[in-house]
From TrEMBL:
This protein's record includes keyword Cell membrane: yes
Protein name per its UniProtKB record: Undecaprenyl-diphosphatase
Membrane-protein topology: Multi-pass membrane protein
EC number assigned by the record: 3.6.1.27
Enzyme class: hydrolase
Amino acid sequence: MTDLLTAIILGIVEGVTEFLPVSSTGHLVLATELLGYDPQKWAVFNIAIQPGAILAIVALYWRTFWAVAMGLVRREPASIAFVRNLLIAFVPAVALGLAFNDQIEALLESAVTVAWALILGGIAILVIERLARTHQVGGISGVSAGQSAKIGVVQCIAMIPGVSRSGATIMGAMALGIDRRTAAEFSFFLALPTLTGATALQLVKHRDAITGGDVQLIAVGFLVSFVVALAVVKAFMAVVTKHGFAPFAWYRIVAGAAALAFLYTR
């Protein structure tokens, strides 16, 4: 398989899974393992293409970002609360990410960890979907500072590959009583500072490993993940509104079990 085709496949995986509660990092690790890619060669690539998916959120929700920016200029309480909540939720990831960066990278090498995390995360989603008592909070600005802090702490669980950053934040928000749509959008917007910071940290750390050829492949993966994420996020919100998160939970369980079967029998 050529490097270009590999870049396209991984870009598709990133775009499809980044904002779904199924773990994009976990799927990239499994793709590397199941398709026989060199994990060391593609590790930095997998991180570097994340901004493509992030940019899709900016493109889809640009009106929201513009309204918040204008609201900040006018010092509107709702816009101030919007930014405050995202910053509060972002802080725990910064602290733990800097403190345990090496340990987190080590976990990325374990496909078995990913498979088990997919299964256990799927079960957790089913339980929370069944037991959570949610109510409309009026969007992200209606989330309290305390709830935002708790969502930020829960997001840190996703540093274990396979847990899913979006899944952790969405389920954490719902467990706190926040409605599905707001929980999903909180996860989308929180991805901007979280994934941008994580990507910047890893690219700076591994900058000597990036060659001119890698830059071209990263550009391809970036563009593919952006285009795919645009379509997936729209479809995701439609599915969640109608069916909830159970379909993604069952997918996680089946995918994790299949991955374990492959890993233990190869």
